[in-house]
Amino acid sequence: MKKFFKTAGVIFLLVLVSLSVWCFANMKDRHPDYHVDMKIRNQSSSELKAGFAAVPVTPEVPDRWEDKNGDFKYNPKDGDTFTDGNGNGKFDPVWIAGFSNNKPATGVHDDTWARTMVIDDGKTRLAIVILDVIGFMHDDVVDVRKMLPENLGLTYTIIASTHTHEGPDLMGLWGKHPLKSGVDKTYMQFVKEQTVKSVETAVKNLCPARLEISQDLSGAVPQVKDTRQPEVFDSGLRFIRAVDKITGETLGSLLSWGNHPETLWSGNLLVSSDFPHFFREGVEKGVLNKDSLVQPGIGGVAVFMNGAIGGLMCTHRTHPITDPFSGDVLVEPSFEKAEAQGNILSMLALDAMQRPSEVIETAGISLVVRTLKLPIKNTLFKLATALGVLDRGTAGWMKMKTELAVFSIGPVSFVTIPGEIYPEIINGGVEAPQGRDFEIGLTEVPPVRELMPGKYKFVIGLANDEIGYIIPKSQWDVKAPFTYERDDSPYGEENSLGPETAPVLHRNLKEMLQELGE
């Protein structure tokens, strides 16, 4: 009997040691020697070059399936069946990310993309890549940067996500079940290769350009809902149109707005970039009412980038969108609703771009980049990282490496945010309500846009990472009594690294913006 217990004890210890080694391997820093700290100050003014590209990252969906009980989850015990499209004898799911686990796609509605704008002032060459994905983590960003050929002459590359909730899982959190990653490694590699191709093509397309800056800071307000108090939005539309100096043709456009691409909501089973698809199509090709052209497009490649979408900025399934042509009020999630929203945004953009606020013929690019380590306080994030569900390394004990960048092009300034930041941190309106977990005053003040130089201020959300929600510390609320007389804790904290994330990011952005303006 003693021998049995001794043997069992040895086996248990071996299993425990093996599990510990496996967990530590999952948490190993993927790029221990990679660290970016950069400062470029260019006060001179020179001719600008711009180049654009759009390369598809649409996944193959070989197998279709039938959802017998309409729960949007694949479960053969419920009678769900699949069609073996590639004939390999098994179900090959493409897990849709954003709402729930075990939600495979049944097909593709529209292409998803790696869209790139490259801007060059003769000294600095900057690439801005926007992917139609839920999120692209910092380790993966670094992978792509290391794949980019040196002869492209890039000074710095930003890779951000639109945060579509209708595309494949690239983070690991939406697989078959919570303990199973939903990332297909072959597809991930395809996305990285296509991203490189997009940047290469945009560099190849560089030519002398002028930048036309325009904005509409109020027209899109009815298109978005804030689902958590205090109600603060990032609903301003901001645009940069790059025009070929020789031909006068549009090279491309940068479209900025803050809203979750989840208008299609949780019942959609088709891969889609959601409303950004219709937004970009309208700007490029024109807005159609059925088969009639209502407003011509400007051509070129439209690049949509998201803004401050935490808190939670979304077109909720209960939020109405009025079709601009029929006048129908669309409440239930559908492609018709997403198209109506995209058409509205396109027309607002095209109207604004017809009367630019400023035209930039020459300018210099200034840039400040900083690598940070953020503490991981979220127990679920710790477990997901240790178990390899969240496929990213740590930098030190339970710290996550991420990155911030601020840059300017003449009177236009940008900040990159590595996640979903609450708009009150960007635009003002941070509160310290009764019931908050920390008895402190306002920490993330003044608002970031107030600190940014120039007349036109762009925020690139989910840039170079996706660390989750970035919540003002004075609004952190997981313990009773709850803020704003709620009965339960609000949504957000469970998908955040922790309460120190926002103060650390705000403090660093403040310092970096001061450096940018020196």
TrEMBL record:
It comes from the Bacteria. Residues 95-216 form the Neutral/alkaline non-lysosomal ceramidase N-terminal domain. InterPro entries: NEUT/ALK_ceramidase_N. Pfam families: Ceramidase_alk. This is Neutral/alkaline non-lysosomal ceramidase N-terminal domain-containing protein. It comes from Mariniphaga sediminis.
